[in-house]
Amino acid sequence: MHIAIFSVGILIFLAHFFTKFFEKTRIPDVLMLVVIGLIIGPGLQLVSSKSFGQVGHIFSVIALIIILFESGLGLTFSNLKKSAFRGMKLATVNFAATLIVITSLSMWVYNMRLIEGLILSSILAATSAAVVIPMIDKLKLAQGTKTALIIESTFSDVLCIVMTLGFMQMLKYNEMRITMMIGGLISSFLLAALIGATAAIFWSNLLSKVRRLDNNIFLTPAFVFVIYSLSEMLGYSGPISALAFGIMLGNIEILHQIPFFDNFPVLKPIQLSYIEKSFFGEAVFLLKTFFFVYIGLSIQMTHFSVVLAGFIFSVVLYFIRVPVVKLATERMVTQFDSIISSIMVPKGLVSAVLVAVVVQTKINNAAIMEELTYSIILFTIVFTTILVFTIEKTKVKDFYASFFQNHVLEEQEEELKENAANTLKPEKTPPPPTQII
Predict the structure, then answer these.
(1) Domain boundaries of the chain, sorted by first residue
(2) Tell me: the pLDDT tens digits for 47-72?
(3) How far apart are CA 30 and CA 135, in angstroms?
């Protein structure tokens, strides 16, 4: 036991060291943490994900909830207005491209039936918010691009969950229920967002009373857990509710500008304090540290042929991402932002959960799907972290830049902003001539 506690302490110190190391070398801390998990897990077999049992899965969900909530606090309505559609468009185009390519590849490599290929591809179309958000947080991206990638990763989770379960129903009943799938997608997204936003308004009005309690700082994340679970129990998207809760709570001051709320003087929404926001930032750092180590030790790879296939599938996912980004983003998005968007392909928690559901149904090729998915989760996380480093430090950036030649360069964007600012400045009128009497 004392060795385990010692390891936890060392891991937290290492996480801080890796963060500083990233700032100096641009080698992402995520990669280091996953490698530690691989070493103590599949490598030395000191510990496995089975040792954690159900607690491991619960911890992963908690990490996802807090990461989404905390990222939502930093999103403004103005940025959402500009970038939400772009994020959802990116998720939809990426899902469609993944569905076509991975289904074809799985049918060719493993002789899967069409419906099995559709299930696998919908599992692999999800982009992990728990990986993307901590990674882009440290990159010099435009706020609009960060917002779009956060929306994409969250919306893709909903899209993949609804479509995977829909394809599984199709396999069970031998019929395509398109209207049910589309209806489920829309209701899951909109109603989950409504639950999160409404809960945030309610909680912001309670904050003044909550702060009178001792040790109250944990109550806000506890309330987010309740909202997430409530949304999931109602059949909607818990991650969307957690993100919407954070967005609404982070922009709660805007309610004072809406005349409708003047009719309810009892409503007195207040913002989170600086101390509370700092605490949530610390919580994200801690949870992120253990989450990526847990991912590393959870990887299951026993058959070399499946691992090799996972490598090939992962490479294909990166190849199709480039045309996806070109289709889904405007030319005014800078070249660097487009390049980073084109490497944000990491898979994670949602893919792992969905493939576990597939294994429980005992459909054909379920075992292959499970091992293949875990391999792809590992490779996509590793590839993304390596590409982030190489794009900033090597000629790899030039290779990706060749696909986005018609996009605005960073220096051109600064010039455009400066010109726009100068245009908005009022012209100075000369003073009237002095009359000599």
Answers:
(1) 2-423
(2) 877 777 667 778 888 988 999 899 88
(3) 8
